[in-house]
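Following up on my earlier thread - several people asked me to post the actual chain instead of describing it. Fair enough. Here it is, all 694 residues.
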Amino acid sequence: TLINGDKEAGFSIFWADDGLDTGPILSQKSCPVLPDDTVDSVYNRFLYPEGIKSMAEAVDMVANGTAPVIPQSTEGVSFEPSVRKKSLQKIDWNKNGKDIHNFIRGLDSSPGAWTIIDNTEVKLYKSAIWSNDTPTGDLITVDTLQNPAVVHDNGLLITCNDGLKLNINRLSVDGKMMAASMYGKADTIQETIEFTAEEKALIPIVETIWKNILNMGIENNTHFFQSGAGSMDVVRLIEEIKDKLKLTIKNDDVFMSPIFSDFCNTLIKRSRGTSDEKKHVEYDPVVIEVNNMKLQFAKQLFINGQFIDSESGNTVECINPADESVICSIQCASEVDVNQAVNAASKAFEGEWTEMSPRDRGAIMYKIADLLDKHREELATIESIDSGAVYTLALKTHIGMSIDVWKYFAGWADKIHGQTVPISHARPNRNLTFTKKEPIGVCGIITPWNYPLMMLSWKMAACLAAGNTVVLKPTEMSPLTALKFAELSVEAGFPSGVINILPGLGTVTGRAIAEHPDIRKVGFTGSTATGHMIMKASSESNLKKVSLELGGKSPLIIFDDCDLEKSVRMSMGGVFFNKGENCIAAGRVFVESSIHDKFVDKVVEEVKKIKIGNPLERDTHHGPQNHKTHLEKLLNYCQKANNEGAELKIGGKRVDRPGYYFEPTVYTGVEDHMFIAQEESFGPIMAISKFSGR
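Reply from S.P.:
Thanks for posting it. Predicted structure:
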C-alpha cells in the first residue's frame, strides 16, 4: 500500500476459506494515508485499535446472525511480489523522489530499504518529505545518487534526481541502528551503569520476554533484529514491557538499542526518568594550573549536546583581567550556528524534554545543582580569572547563589499548574472553566559579564523548570563558566538540545537570536541601548515575548538620625560590592547636610582600608574591572565628573599595576544636572549629594 503510494489504507475481515484470503468479506474499514506515514504509524494510529474493535464487532455479528457475506470483487485485483528477496529491497535512485519515499517508508522497520554508502550496505528508515532549505552538514556520496547527501543535525538529507528532498531519521549499519544525524561521527561515550538490586531483578524478566519473542536463548550480545524480529515483534516487546514491568518505552528505544545489554541499559534509564545515553562529552580542553588546582574547560560552541567549532571559524580571546594575559581563544557563533542550535532546541522541545514528567525534569535540575556544588571551587576559580571576581566572593555569591537558584526552580518543576474556576456553579451543570500553563518553546537568553554563571542560572533555571528549551549567548567577555556549565549539564542528564551555549558577539550572535523566527521568547540583561535593539528585532521578526533588565541608577538616602558606622558600611557595600559591577548598585548617595561632612570623612577613611589586588588571594577585597573597555569607560566617566564640577575626594584613577584595576572612587558636591548624577557608572564610583531635612 505504501510502496504504491496509495492514498488510502485499511483492512478486511474474511469469512474462513482455504487460507488464501479469497473468502467472502465480513467487514472492511479504511483510513487516509498521511504523506510521511510508515507501517508502524498506520498500525499504531489505525490498524491496531480499529482492528481489535472490528474483530469484536465481527464476532458479535456472527453470534447474532447479522454478519454480512460479501463476495470479493475480481475487478482491479493485483498481486504484489514479495519483498523478502534482498534484491527487491534495494533502492533504485533513478526513480522519482515520490516513488523512492514510498519505497523507503513501505519497508520501514522490517526488512528496511538498503543502499550503498561509503562502500557499505546501509538501511534507511523513517523517510519524510523535506520542504525547508538545505541545512549545513557533512556531505557524503550515496550509491548512484547524482547529488551528495547531507548529514545534519536532524538526520540525513537526500536530494533525489528530480529535486525532491527526503530526510532520513535512522540508519542501520552492520546491523546496528543509529540516528542518521550521527552517521560518520565518533561513537558517544556512554556512562557505565551500576544497577541496584531491584534493577538487577528486572533483567531476568526482560530476558524471558526476549526469549519468548525470538524463540532462542538470549546472550548479552543478542541482536533483536538480526535474530529475526520484525515490526510486529517491536510492538509486542513494548506491550510486554509495559504489562510486566509497568514501564513505557518507545519504538526508538528498541531500534536504537537492539542489542540485549544495550536495551537493558536503556530500560533502566527509562525507569530512572531519563534515557539520554550521553553522560560525558568529548572536547578539546583548555588545561591550566591556577589557584592550586588543575582547571579544564571547553572553548567551543555547545550545540545539541556536543562541543563543536563555529561554522565561521571566528574566535575571540578571553583575557584574564588580573594580569591582562590571554587565557584562551573561544569560538564565536555565527548566524548559521544559531540556526543549528535553535533546530536542536526545537527538536528537544518537541521530543524528550516535554515528554518527560515535570518531576523527572526537576530531578535533573537538582542533579545539576549538586554538580555545581561539587565543582564549586573550580567554578569560582574560572569565574575569578575570567571576570575578575574576588575568589572568596565568587564561592559564596557567584557560584553559591547559582546553586541555590537551581535548587529553587527544581522544586517548582512539578508545581506549575493552572486554575479551575466555577463560572456558573449551579445545578444541574455546575459549569467550570480552567486554565492550563504550558511551556512557550525555545527561549533565547543573552547574559552580561558581571555575574556570568549567576545570570545564566537566574534566567535558564526558570525556563527549564517550565519545560522550555534554551539557546544562551554568554558575553564574549566572560564565557568560560557557561561552557563549564554546558559540560556539567551533560553529566546531569539533560537530553541533547535542551541546553545550547553559544559564545559570540552581540552584533552577530545576539542579533541572530533576537531575530530568529523559531525563538518564542528572549531574556536580556545589559545596556538600555542594546535593549532597544533587541525589542525592535524581536517585534519585527515574530513578535516574540521579551524580558529586559536594563540600566539603572539606584539611590540611597541617609538621614541624620542614622547609625553612622552602619550607614557608611552599608553605603560602601551598595557601591563597591563586586567592584561596583552591579545593576542594583546604589551609585548615588543622598546624605542629610547636618551629617554630610562626617559621613564623607568616614567613607574616605574606610575606602583607604580596601585592599586592591589579585582576586585569587584570600585577603583581597577589590579585584580588577571585567575588561579593558569598561576600565576606559570608568576613566572617561570620572573625567566628565571632574569637568562638570564634582569634587573628587579619593580614587578616580587606574591602579599602577598590570591588570584592569580601578581605584574605589568617591565624589561629593554632585548636582542633579551632572552626568555623574544621571548615568550609571557600573563601577566603584560613589556620587554623594547633600540635602536638607527641613
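The longest helix spans residues 39-64. That should answer part of your original question.
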